Amino acid sequence: MIELQGLTKIYGDKTVVDDVSLRVDSGEFGVLIGPSGCGKSTTLRMINRLIPASRGRILLGEDDITRLPVEQLRRRIGYAIQSIGLFPHWSVAKNIAVVPGLLKWPKSRIDERVDELMGLFHLDAGELRDKYPHQLSGGQAQRVGVARALAADPEVLLMDEPFGAVDPLTREVLQDELLRVHRHTRKTIIFVTHDMDEALKLASRIALLNAGRLVQYDRPIELLTRPANDFVRSFIGKADLGLKLLSRRWVHQYQQPATLRGASDESVRISGYAWEVDKEGRPVCLHGGRLHAEDTQERTGVTPEWSATPDMTMKEALSRMVWFRVMVLPVLDSEGRLVGEVTMHGVMGQQPCA
Ligand SMILES: Nc1ncnc2c1ncn2[C@@H]1O[C@H](COP(=O)(O)OP(=O)(O)OP(=O)(O)O)[C@@H](O)[C@H]1O
């Protein structure tokens, strides 16, 4: 657990971190986000004691970090940064082993730990152990940087825009890997980014800073649905707030009972469409339910793409509705049987169930 209490940093007459208080519980994935210059990196550097705080306290578990010997702090807090900072003349293995080496672990334990971490990050130890940083791809170098930060099994991992310099595809892969490693290790993470999509994907809690002050500290869904003020609204809402929101919601939250062909004429009249299913309960086609009046085709064959599953995000379901020009998607179980439907009308008007 990391707790910041009234954390403040003043340079000259400028307060760059201003009375920030927040707590990241054990095993949580906290993300610091905000516009350039809002004080994210300065906050992280104070936590790591790379720079001293002007006021306030930082607790690591029960301990005030200013009272911990520096080598204990380095062991308990891992640090990974965008520029990676790998030593260019050291091999991958030696780079990963920096902190265990400082802690004077026996060689056999260090070797074992290096292999374990390379495995965790899908780095082929046979091929890469003795390579030098300039022989790695950007994604591989980032993995080595994060593996190095985890080498001494710290309680907390601080990450300052670690994926800022890699291409978007590699970035997504690295994000997925980090989520997997987080699930596996349950480390407490504090991650700095200025990319809202990255924050929404990774965070269990997001701290939004502006001009050194903490504006809102909340779960991603709360930030999206209950922004504390206009600054939050404009920071998250600039591009595609609605779609971001639907990327955190799931089909099963919007799912309704399907209207079947042969149901009472009244229910078919109200919904304007009905599903025809085969003997096993798999949908065969939809009668009605198209977006446009010119789509006069009465019976529309159901394909695997034109359907949803309960664990699909509503963003993807909506995208499919738009692509197939339909008002409604069948929701299928793993056997392809019709278990419900989601509708455009439901997305617009209905509060999702918990
Ligand atoms: N050593 C320093 N002396 C004076 N001002 C500093 C110093 N270090 C940082 N600052 C100022 O503190 C403010 C916060 O900087 P910081 O690097 O924490 O911002 P950030 O939110 O991480 O920004 P970015 O997203 O651009 O990396 C900036 O205005 C910066 O110019």
Automatic annotation (TrEMBL):
Q: Which UniProt keywords apply?
A: ATP-binding, CBS domain, Nucleotide-binding, Transport
What SMART domains does the entry give? Answer: AAA
Domain of life according to the entry: Bacteria
Family annotation (Gene3D superfamilies): CBS-domain, P-loop containing nucleotide triphosphate hydrolases
Q: Which SUPFAM superfamilies does the annotation name?
A: CBS-domain pair, P-loop containing nucleoside triphosphate hydrolases
Occurrences of domain ABC transporter (ranges):
2-236
User: What Pfam families does the annotation carry?
Assistant: ABC_tran (PF00005), CBS (PF00571)
Q: Which residues form the CBS domain?
A: 301-354
What span is annotated as the signal peptide, if there is one? none
Instruction: Note the InterPro entries from the entry.
Output: AAA+_ATPase, ABC_transporter-like_ATP-bd, ABC_transporter-like_CS, CBS_dom, CBS_dom_sf, P-loop_NTPase
Tell me a Gene Ontology molecular-function term this record carries: ATP binding
Q: Which family does it belong to?
A: Belongs to the ABC transporter superfamily.
* Name recorded for this polypeptide: ABC transporter ATP-binding protein
